[in-house]
Amino acid sequence: MTSEALKKITRREPVATSQLVELLASNNPEVKILTADYVAHMHSTSGWEDLGLLVTNLLSRDCHDANPAVAGSAVSALAVLQTAQEEALAAILHCLDSPHAKVRQCAAAASLSYSKTHPDVVVSCGLSDRLYSSLRDRDPVVVARCLVALDHILASEGGVVINKSIAHYLLFKRLNDFSDATLETVLKFLRKYNPKDDKERFEMLNPLDTCFQSDYPPVLVAASNLFFQWTSPYPHLRAELVKVIQPAFCKIFLKLTSAETNIMLTNFFKSLGSCTREIFNKHYKDFFIKPSDPNHLKKSKFEIMCLIALPINASEFIENVYPYCSDFNCYADAISCLGGLGQLCTRSRENVLGLLSDLLVSSSVDIVASSLDCLLRVVSCNMLFPESLKNRSTSSVLSQLANPDEPEPLANQTFENVWPRDLSLSITLKNAISQALSRPAILECHPCLVLYVVSTLATVFEDCSITCLEALQAEQHRLPPTAQCLLLTTVARVFLCRPAQCYHMLVRVLRSGVVSSSEEVRDKAFLLYAMLKLGPNAANQLLCGTAQET
């Protein structure tokens, strides 16, 4: 009978309470551990009904067992039992004083489980005071787990409080004791403490030096974020730290790591600010895509490329990225990267527009859609590096971008038209765009994207834009409200550009809009009609950002 019950336990199948009592009463420590783990798992995941008093009593007795594994599993099981509120609290407090580190670790973790099982009493039962005293436990795992438990227990009060005494103790006396996993936890909680003055601030930063060379990504990120928070009054120190962590970051990022790690490092890189372009561009070839790179690393590299490229080497980035724009596994990220690189300078924009001529005639609808989105990004943006900086050295360009002159008052600025009137597109690219916009699959699956392109390039295309709008207007009643509103706006903008060709279509879409069943569409139709009644100059100013040219 015992062997059958053990088989059910290992398979996580239901076991009678009488059998659990028999197994917990066994003298075999392995059986006790298996049974206690089973009770904890089933009660926390399956919503088990409350167990009998005998099970609770046996688990309470096992918390005093000389075997650390037995005591640890018993206190973990008690902490999740609804009916063992008093017994579990007594067991946790007892086990936190155990001479065995394993038992104290389990008790600290059980405190978190207990706070989730009994949220109404955990704040007032005195457990938090005991956990605060355990922050000076000689075992670093216990310290880290107590921090996590305290933060959850005191969540309604803002989480665990890190005062000067605790912060100095963790930094100056215990920092080297923590493993990588526990060190990350400690560094995150140290952000809850703010040094009182500059002297204390820089004293507390000194012990972090070893963390900036860590090859464990979470530690590097946590230590850097802690540094950024403590030095927020001195933003120039941000770039200095980025220079320090650059070798460690590249070493970790470029080796084969998990997808989760790459995502974390990429998001961290994005948060570093504009200083990354100057510091990491010196090593830009390290971030080039390799055929052997896993897909998650390629995705991360595509995102980082746009943040480190400069006009002087933009063509090399584009050349490296382009072959992957037709790769089924990463085409979307590659084409998006092209869009970012095309915003660097005039030359990079011309290079990207030239490549889009081929991508827009691809047999894949998804590649064409991504290419149209890339086209929008490239033609609608202001250059990150203006033409006036083209012949300047890299260092001087970066210096000017980092320290721009005082901006001109808004009243004295001339705002650029949102329509790229002076945009020059090659005949090949125009034909490719026309072909892409006219594809039935694109019109059906990506109507909003088509409308954005037509609206942006209304002055460049004539027949193609009218044809696309007529096709979408014929299906206006089937479009979602958002797309219908965009159709109304696009037709109005194109009408202002070419009134003779678009007049009848404007009448049709407005007439359909004002009788739409969607309040959003009706409001948009009446609003556009009111704008157009103001006259061409006012309508152009409202819809296109500029007065009509005469």
TrEMBL record:
Keywords of this entry: Membrane, Protein transport, Transport
InterPro entries membership: AP_beta, ARM-like, ARM-type_fold, Clathrin/coatomer_adapt-like_N
Subcellular location as annotated: Endomembrane system
Biological process annotations from GO: intracellular protein transport; vesicle-mediated transport
Any one annotated GO CC term: endomembrane system
Primary site of residence: membrane
Signal peptide boundaries: none
Start and end residues of each Clathrin/coatomer adaptor adaptin-like N-terminal domain: 17-380
Homology family: Belongs to the adaptor complexes large subunit family.
Protein name per Swiss-Prot or TrEMBL: AP-4 complex subunit beta-1
Source species: Hyalella azteca
